[in-house]
Every structure is written in C-alpha cells, then in structure tokens.
C-alpha cells in the first residue's frame, strides 16, 4: 500500500526535528566533559557560548517566520538542515575553543529555523483534519533525537568528533529528503486556501482578520473568518496585516505568558538535570547520559499530543502535563530522591515537555491560522526567553540558597503556567455540542 504524501511529510519533519534539536542542539551537552578535556574550555567561554546560542536561536526563529512567508517552507527547511550539518561538521573539526564556540552557535541556530518552516509546510501540505496530529508527531522528533544521542554519547566515549561527523552526515542527507517532500509554497499562497470559513481541525476561531492574504490568486482585505476551526484553542481577535507583525490579541498574550513560564520551569532539568543527579546521587556523566536517554525515549510519547487535545481539549491537556512537569522536577532534584525515582522523573519530564511544546505549537498555529510560521515563532520565542531567564535564576537560587529551594520554586512555576488558558469560555461551551465533538474527532 502506497504511503500518503502527507505521511512522508510527517516522517521527514520528525527526522529533521530529531537532527536539529536532538543532535545539533542538545547532544553537545552530553559530550561536553570529553570536549572540555581535549580543548580546555574556560567557564567564561562556556557562559558566552550559552548566551550567544540563545541570541542566535532568537534571531533564527524570527528570521525563519519572515523567510517562510516569503520564500516558502521548503527553502527554509533545507537551510535548517544544511546549517545543522555545517555546524556539527564544524564541531567535529574544531581545532580550538573559539572555533568550537562558533560551530556550536551555528548548529544550534538550526532549531530556530526549522520549527516555523515545518508548521507552514504542514498547513500547506497536510489535509486539515490531520494537521494537528501531524504537527504533534513532528514535534516529538526532539525526543527521538535526544534518545538516540544519549546511547551514542555512552558508546562513542572519547570519540566525540566521529559522533558529530556522523550527526552532520544525517542532517546533510535530510536536506535532500526535504527538497523532494516539503511543499514549496506556504498556506496563504497555496491554491484552494480560503480566508473565509477556513477549517483546521476542531474548535472555533471568531473574528480572525486577515489583510492582504492571497487565496487562489484573489486578495482579501479585512475579511473576518468567523467559524474557522482549530483544535481546542480559540483565536478571538487575533489580527494579521499582510506579512507584518501581528497584533497581540488576548489568545497570543496568554500563549506568551504560558510559554515563558514553562520555558523557565524546564531549565531545572534541561540546564541543571545533570548537576542535580550528580549532587543527589553522585552520578557521573554516564549517569547523566542515562537520564538524558530516559527523557528522550519517553518524549516520543508526546507525539500523541494532537489526539489528546482533540479528545480532552487543549487546556485540560496543558494543565495535566504541566502537573507532570512539576512532579518530574521534584523527582529528579529534591533531596532524598533515589535512582529509580530520578529516572522516572526524567521519563515524566520527557513526555511532559514534548507534549506541552506540542500544545504551544498548535496554540500558535490556531492563533494565526493564515500565518502558522509566525504563530509558532511567537510561541517558541517566548519559550526560549523563558529558558534563558530561568537558567540564570535557577543558578542564582542554588548559589544563594539551596538546590531544594530552587527545585521547589521551579516546580511551582510549572503549575503557574497552567493559569493561562487557550480556550475562551464561549469556545469551551461550544465544544460540548455534538457538531463540535464530531469536528474535533476528524
């Protein structure tokens, strides 16, 4: 039986996310002790690399949304794959610490480029009824990449250059797959796209106004798309003007707040998980690799986020997995934890983080249905800013107080993010009607 073309898109996107996030961004931390032993990285340089990596991510995610709306998702996704490959090849060949720093920043910038482009590709190339599930599946590629990089780090040991050369080859090969499979055009430029009554799987979007969005060669100015549907998240009053900066409606402001708080809370594990298990359990870098593998393997379960949202609603899924994230921070970092509890916490964090980022991806797409790349850019930029702020604050709390204080506070931050709601009261009520239930199950 032939595979539907939209499934090829989902599989390719999943693999590209795994390469960009799992290999190009997160694998470096696993190999850092071995790299440090060879290149003698100073703590100052390591700090500069972290700050510069955040800056390049922010620039890349904004640039990706801008380029995707003008050049199409295929061009930007190919660029992300090639940049990831070039950056990881640079890491493999790095003769000195400054060279390594530049290569790490280049490789990490691929993550900012890839997510908005893939969201736009799904909007243009996947039937509306499968878009949310496909987006969630692609997003779970992060878990697969992290899960694979953990065993590679354990097996390769001192051969970190060979490992990154292999990662670079994978990313380079994916550039060719992207060139053949991803659509050239964005949703707004695809024939058959409509500005009125557009459907994107599930709950209502009332009063979304698009200005200057071309649909099958016809330009619509100020057309309100009342009744356009997305799964779970209501986009009430979200306004776009051409390809410019969208107005921050209530749904976008709530998305930014939730993503910022979640990003901050997640740094307890992403930035300090290895340090916490070393402190609590006296684990070496090998133990940290096991924690990373647990996070990545469980994160693949987050591919089901689209189905869970369709069945239970975006806000319920959001709150449940934020609770799981809070519990995972406590299990990994609280005083008195054990090895089984820490690994359980890692697995819980993996599925929670991937599911929640899937929620924000779908929330951003539904907030700006005619500009999915921009919606994803807003969500992931807020997440990254939260991670940067969170890492600084967590480290400060550990220095000034204790690790327990930092862990408890950051677990509470995860709960706080659940206050922000994607659905309006009207939309939550409307989903109870049979017609809405039928739509959400498509």
**Average predicted confidence as pLDDT:** 79
What is the count of β-strands? Answer: 6
- Give the H and E element order: HHHHHHHHEEEEEEHHHHHHHHHH
CATH topology of the largest domain: Growth Hormone, Chain: A
Shape: globular
Task: Output the CATH class name of the largest domain.
Answer: Mainly Alpha
Q: Please indicate the percent range of residues in DSSP E strands (runs of 2 or more).
A: 5-15%
Q: What Rg is obtained from the alpha carbons, in whole angstroms?
A: 21 Å
**Name of the CATH superfamily of the largest domain:** MFS general substrate transporter like domains
What is the annotated CATH architecture of the largest domain?
Up-down Bundle
Number of domains: 3
Sheet having the most strands: 3 strands, mixed
Low-pLDDT sequence parts: 189-241, 428-442
Lateral strand order in the biggest sheet: 1-5-2
What structural class is derived from the secondary structure elements? mainly alpha
Domain Major facilitator superfamily (MFS) profile: 8-429
InterPro entries: MFS (IPR011701), MFS_dom (IPR020846), MFS_Efflux_Transporters (IPR050189), MFS_trans_sf (IPR036259)
Main location: membrane
GO molecular function, one term: transmembrane transporter activity
């Amino acid at each position: 039986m032939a595979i539907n073309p939209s499934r090829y898109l989902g599989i390719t996107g999943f693999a590209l996310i795994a390469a960009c996030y799992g290999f190009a961004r997160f694998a470096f931390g696993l190999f850092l002790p071995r790299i440090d032993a060879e290149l003698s990285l100073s703590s100052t340089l390591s700090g500069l690399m972290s700050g510069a990596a955040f800056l390049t991510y922010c620039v890349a995610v904004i640039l990706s949304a801008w380029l995707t709306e003008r050049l199409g998702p295929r061009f930007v996704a190919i660029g992300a794959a090639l940049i990831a490959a070039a950056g990881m090849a640079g890491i493999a060949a790095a003769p000195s610490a400054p060279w390594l720093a530049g290569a790490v920043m280049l490789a990490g910038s691929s993550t900012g480029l890839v997510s908005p482009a893939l969201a736009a590709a799904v909007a243009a190339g996947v039937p509306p009824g499968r878009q949310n599930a496909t987006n969630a599946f692609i997003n779970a590629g992060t878990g697969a990449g992290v899960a694979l990089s953990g065993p590679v780090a354990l097996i390769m040991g001192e051969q970190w250059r060979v490992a990154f050369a292999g990662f670079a080859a994978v990313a380079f090969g994916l550039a060719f797959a992207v060139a053949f499979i991803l659509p050239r055009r964005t949703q707004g430029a695809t024939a058959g796209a409509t500005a009125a009554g557009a459907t994107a799987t599930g709950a209502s979007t009332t009063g979304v106004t698009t200005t200057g969005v071309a649909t099958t060669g016809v330009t619509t100015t100020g057309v309100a798309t009342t009744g356009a549907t997305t799964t779970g998240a209501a986009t009430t009053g979200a306004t776009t003007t051409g390809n410019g900066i969208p107005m921050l409606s209530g749904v976008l402001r709530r998305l930014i707040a939730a993503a910022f708080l979640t990003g901050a809370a997640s740094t307890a594990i992403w930035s300090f998980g290895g340090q916490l298990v070393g402190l609590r359990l006296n684990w070496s870098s090998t133990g940290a690799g096991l924690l990373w593998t647990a996070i990545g393997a469980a994160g693949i379960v987050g591919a089901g986020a689209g189905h869970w949202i369709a069945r239970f609603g975006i806000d319920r899924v959001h709150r449940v997995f934020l609770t799981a994230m809070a519990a995972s921070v406590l299990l990994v970092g609280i005083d008195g934890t054990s090895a089984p509890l820490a690994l359980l916490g890692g697995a819980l964090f993996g599925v929670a983080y991937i599911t929640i980022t899937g929620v924000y991806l779908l929330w951003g797409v539904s907030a700006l249905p005619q500009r999915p790349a921009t919606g994803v850019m807003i969500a992931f930029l807020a997440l990254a800013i939260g991670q940067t702020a969170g890492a600084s604050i967590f480290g400060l709390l550990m220095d000034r107080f204790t690790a327990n204080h930092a862990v408890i506070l950051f677990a509470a931050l995860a709960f706080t993010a659940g206050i922000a709601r994607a659905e309006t009261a009207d939309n939550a009520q409307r989903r109870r009607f049979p017609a809405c239930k039928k739509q959400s199950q498509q």
